[in-house]
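Chain A, query sequence.
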Amino acid sequence: TFGQLLYLSSNGKYYKARANSSATMGCVAVAVAAISADAAGNIMHIGFFRNDAYTFTAKTVYWVSGATAGAYATSAPTTVGYRMQKVGHGKAAHIFYFNPEMTMTRQ
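Chain A, predicted structure.
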């Protein structure tokens, strides 16, 4: 789905990132179009995107969600063992600056 956060698996494919496991982290890309399973698709590693299906808050830092694969969170996960990774910030209601930090910490 357009806007979902992705990690690169050891098999060379991208999957939805989720902060609950090192196996589903770190986030390195965002889908910029709908992508079917096992299909080629468009992704972005850094930059701005607009998605009217999302509502971002300007100047708010976003993190990889620990609850939902591919989703954003407005705060770092607090569950012990979860990974914390900032992925960018909102610029306007439907505009996001994707720039994932490559340093992750663990709760």
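The chain is about 0% helix and 35% strand. The CA atoms of residues 6 and 17 lie 5 Å apart.
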